[in-house]
């Protein structure tokens, strides 16, 4: 083969790779700054997460040592303004979530819990003193936050929470339990939502330093999903908090719901990252795995599977990008986020399952990322609103008739 022929073959291979990863040329719709953010996070994932995630996931290790590195990269509270936060656009933040989840859902979840839940709640509802105390340290990864809303008996219906804060002199005394709280055992501060006896605003938010007497956290173990992440039970037994522990601007359930929408937005992008990683793994495997004397990528049924994956990833990424542009323009509504979360996570799970079939028996091992992504996505599908909840949010949006009760 001559040098010209080799160059032509290489050029053709690069063209195939470009079409396989970005068939519609979505990359051209990003700004230079958005591409730079995406590429920086992609490099971080390639260098720090992908070489280690198999061991972290198998041994159920959350790699706390990379948290300051995430802070240095500007990933923590990335979309927030001031207080040491990067102040990036919604689209840039979404692209970062997509790249992080291509590494692992659990590590994208950490960034969401830290930035979209805990830090967003403090930034939006906290006093200036609370912001100054916590946000710069959290942005650098020197302090970790968690977000206590879900309870053992109160998941999709947070209005039924039983955690209660009673006023006692100039203090608040907190009692109750929370469950499935990300980062609870490694957090320095918990954003906790509790009922009060305030008539106008029965649900309020509190900042609870985790060294407060009466606070305890316990890891939820024996998980088959999100193993490189931390989920916990929290218990509050007569936790005495000063008056200034309350988030002054958080009144009613709109407080936690607004933070949840921030986290749900990141999932819209993140799910497509996990799906893309599964697809790219299956595509590469199919071109190298030979059966009956030729690569399995040459078989019609394999090509159909790959095409279906590519279609849904491209569509889902366009949905995420459009929702991100709406968020940056200030035209996004909560039901738009439900649209993206419901569609993209559901399709990502289908892609993971189909990609696994291309790898056959090899697909169930941790030598490949697909089964790990598939297991993680089962958790992503449930948290920040189940399929059923988002379906009813959308149903209410198009009919005007709420069907929650």
Index terms:
single chain; 405 residues; alpha+beta; Butyryl-Coa Dehydrogenase, subunit A, domain 1; Butyryl-CoA Dehydrogenase, subunit A, domain 2; Butyryl-CoA Dehydrogenase, subunit A, domain 3; 3 domains; four-stranded mixed β-sheet; four-stranded antiparallel β-sheet; 12 helices; 10 strands; 53% helix; 15% strand; elongated
Question: What do you see in this structure?
Answer:
The chain is 53% helix and 15% strand. It is of the alpha+beta class and 405 residues long. It folds into three domains: 19-140, Butyryl-Coa Dehydrogenase, subunit A, domain 1 (Orthogonal Bundle), CATH 1.10.540.10; 145-251, Butyryl-CoA Dehydrogenase, subunit A, domain 2, CATH 2.40.110.10; 255-399, Butyryl-CoA Dehydrogenase, subunit A, domain 3 (Up-down Bundle), CATH 1.20.140. A four-stranded mixed sheet has the order 1-4-5-8. A four-stranded antiparallel sheet has the order 2-3-7-6, with helices on one face. The protein has a two-stranded antiparallel sheet with strand order 9-10. α5 crosses α8 (254-288) and α8 (254-288) runs antiparallel to α11 (370-382). The longest helix has 35 residues, at 254-288.
Q: How is this structure best summarized?
A:
The protein is of the alpha+beta class. The chain has helices at residues 3-21, 32-49, 53-58, 67-72, 90-103, 105-125, 128-140, 254-288, 300-329, 334-359, 370-382, 387-399, and strands at residues 145-148, 164-168, 171-182, 189-195, 203-209, 215-219, 231-242, 246-251, 290-291, 294-295. A four-stranded mixed sheet has the order 1-4-5-8. The chain has a four-stranded antiparallel sheet with strand order 2-3-7-6, with helices on one face.
């Amino acid at each position: 083969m001559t040098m010209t022929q080799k160059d032509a073959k290489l050029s053709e291979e690069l063209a195939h790779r470009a079409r396989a990863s970005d068939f519609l040329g979505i990359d051209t719709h990003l700004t230079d700054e958005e591409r730079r953010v995406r590429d920086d996070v992609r490099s971080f994932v390639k260098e720090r997460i992908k070489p280690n995630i198999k061991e972290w996931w198998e041994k159920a290790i959350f790699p706390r040592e990379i948290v300051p590195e995430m802070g240095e990269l500007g990933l923590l509270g990335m979309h927030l303004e001031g207080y040491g936060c990067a102040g990036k656009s919604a689209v840039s933040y979404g692209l970062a979530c997509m790249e992080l989840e291509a590494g692992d859902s659990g590590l994208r979840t950490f960034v969401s819990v830290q930035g979209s839940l805990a830090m967003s709640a403090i930034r939006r509802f906290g006093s200036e003193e609370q912001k100054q105390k916590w946000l710069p340290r959290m942005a650098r990864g020197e302090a970790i936050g968690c977000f206590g809303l879900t309870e053992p008996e109160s998941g999709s219906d947070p209005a039924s929470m039983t955690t209660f804060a009673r006023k006692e002199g100039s203090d608040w005394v907190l009692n109750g339990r929370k469950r499935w709280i990300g980062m609870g055992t490694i957090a320095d501060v918990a954003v906790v939502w509790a009922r009060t006896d305030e008539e106008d605003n029965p649900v309020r938010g509190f900042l609870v330093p985790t060294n407060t007497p009466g606070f305890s956290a316990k890891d939820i173990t024996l998980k088959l999903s999100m193993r490189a992440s931390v989920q916990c039970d929290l218990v509050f037994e007569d936790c005495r908090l000063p008056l200034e522990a309350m988030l002054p601007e958080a009144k009613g359930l709109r407080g936690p719901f607004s933070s949840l929408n921030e986290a749900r937005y990141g999932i819209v992008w993140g799910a497509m990252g996990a799906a893309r990683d599964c697809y790219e793994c299956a595509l590469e495997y199919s071109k190298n795995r030979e059966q009956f004397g030729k690569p399995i990528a040459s078989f019609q049924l394999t090509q159909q599977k790959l095409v279906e994956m590519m279609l849904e990833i491209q569509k889902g990424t366009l949905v995420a990008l459009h929702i991100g542009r709406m968020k940056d323009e200030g035209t996004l509504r909560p039901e738009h986020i439900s649209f993206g979360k419901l569609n993209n996570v559901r399709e990502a799970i289908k892609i993971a399952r189909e990609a696994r079939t291309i790898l056959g028996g090899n697909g169930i091992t941790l030598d490949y990322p697909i089964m790990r992504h598939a297991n993680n996505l089962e958790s992503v599908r449930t948290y920040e609103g189940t399929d059923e909840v988002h379906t009813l949010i959308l149903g209410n949006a198009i009919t005007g008739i709420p069907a929650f009760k």
